[in-house]
Task: structure prediction
Amino acid sequence: MNRKQNRIPGIEKRGDSWFARYYDIDGKRRGKRFKTQEEAISWKSENERSVKRGEWVAPELTDLTFSKWVEI
Result:
């Protein structure tokens, strides 16, 4: 049985889709499903690069307006 295996940590095949995951600044694991392996790899790389550069923003905060932020 010669099965093709994915050798990229954090990228795995799940059924008909690909799942990518990375760790954010706080060490929380985040993930997302994609149709292709290339999309998964690109998304994971982009987020890991943002974390390393200190440019990463939590997805749940991206729709936060200034007026809502002031209320917090």
Summary: The first strand starts at residue 11 and ends at 14. Residues 11-71 form one domain. The chain has one domain: 11-71. The helical segments are 37-53, 66-71.
